[in-house]
Amino acid sequence: MMDDYNFDGHNWLKGMYNLRRSWSTTFSNNKFSVGLLATSRCEGTNLVLKKAGNRTISLYSFVLNYEKVQKTWHANEKIEDTRCRHGKPATILKNNPLLDHGANVYTLNIFNLFQVELFEPLNIQLRLQPSHSDHFSRVFEMQYYGQNSKVRILVFDVQKEEIRCSCHKFDSMGILCRHALRVLNCMNVHIPEMYIKKRWTKGMRNRLSNETSACVSGNESEMVFVNQKMKFIYDLIMQCKAHEETRNMLTESFNSVAEETITWLENLSIKDPIACNDLISSERNDQSTEEPLRNPLSIKSRGITNPCIRRHWDEKSKKGKRKGKVETFK
């Protein structure tokens, strides 16, 4: 384009061309991205945060709304997991080995993508290259009929059942492309195990829960331990806050556990058990001296003239004032 339109002296276009490996998807199609763009995660996060609150909401209400969003996500995941485990997807053809294998392995959403990739190659012309093929490997050329499309080169290793395509769809999406499925279907080969990503399978949720429990029972990182125990203690406190007896019992249990923990740390010759003791004692005795947590100061954004959201009672009061003015005028 720069040569055709004589843009050789354009500094910005020169700089973008020099940085083409950073922004052009042609150079990143062999990276696993599941089709997400660079700004997809940022835009998704902003959408969730906008649903959880606005610029006039308090921090406490925002956290509650965000927890509701998380609960909705978890509920949808459980429903989808139940559908994948107990339901079977509807297949277009019956007794097709590749299709049946994909239906038994993949989740419902991934199977729909896999089914499209499997039946799309009906319009693809397949040509074998005898000069580059031998007894152990096959080299194919694939191109759509009646179109000036790109020629895809596909190499299939018969012994290892490895298949490589120049489109790199498996590298970027995690499922085999239509060119590879066309060759596997012609060679009467099931989907090789190495090309079935565990994250797209039906029992992945159960595997993650088992790995998490195994991580808890074995060696785990400090951050995982802190997050899990904080969530456990927080849920326990929320259950006990409604009754005074349970609150007192929970406080006594925490105090006894804290004393036993400090004694145990001292026996293990921990360097700073005094700091832990001072921290616990300061939390017991100096709770009244702590400054209360307050909402941050509201800052008027640029270009916004009405930062306050109107309430329904404001509309009623305006209607009442208008009626009063009309009556006095009459």
UniProtKB/TrEMBL annotation:
<keyword id="KW-0539">Nucleus</keyword>
<protein>
    <recommendedName>
        <fullName>Protein FAR1-RELATED SEQUENCE</fullName>
    </recommendedName>
</protein>
<dbReference type="InterPro" id="IPR007527">
    <property type="entry name" value="Znf_SWIM"/>
</dbReference>
<dbReference type="InterPro" id="IPR006564">
    <property type="entry name" value="Znf_PMZ"/>
</dbReference>
<dbReference type="GO" id="GO:0008270">
    <property type="term" value="F:zinc ion binding"/>
</dbReference>
<feature type="domain" description="SWIM-type">
    <location>
        <begin position="156"/>
        <end position="188"/>
    </location>
</feature>
<comment type="function">
    <text>Putative transcription activator involved in regulating light control of development.</text>
</comment>
<dbReference type="GO" id="GO:0005634">
    <property type="term" value="C:nucleus"/>
</dbReference>
<keyword id="KW-0479">Metal-binding</keyword>
<dbReference type="Pfam" id="PF04434">
    <property type="entry name" value="SWIM"/>
</dbReference>
<keyword id="KW-0862">Zinc</keyword>
<dbReference type="GO" id="GO:0006355">
    <property type="term" value="P:regulation of DNA-templated transcription"/>
</dbReference>
<keyword id="KW-0863">Zinc-finger</keyword>
<dbReference type="InterPro" id="IPR031052">
    <property type="entry name" value="FHY3/FAR1"/>
</dbReference>
<comment type="similarity">
    <text>Belongs to the FHY3/FAR1 family.</text>
</comment>
<feature type="region of interest" description="Disordered">
    <location>
        <begin position="285"/>
        <end position="330"/>
    </location>
</feature>
